[in-house]
Amino acid sequence: MGLHALVDGLIMNWVLDPKYFPLAKAAAPMIDLYIDSLKSVTSKRVPKKITKRRSRVT
Prior knowledge:
Blueprint: H1 2-16, H2 23-44
Helix pairs in contact: 1-2
């Protein structure tokens, strides 16, 4: 979803003002940076140990 928002925002802003930035040159590095940041976040995650909860008996 985040990647879609990034690409949509790049295209929308470029369509509004094509002279603002060169889409063909700017988009690829921005998308690569976004994907690389996702890789670094997911590799640092530590999986949580799932424990089964006992139901309380009253």
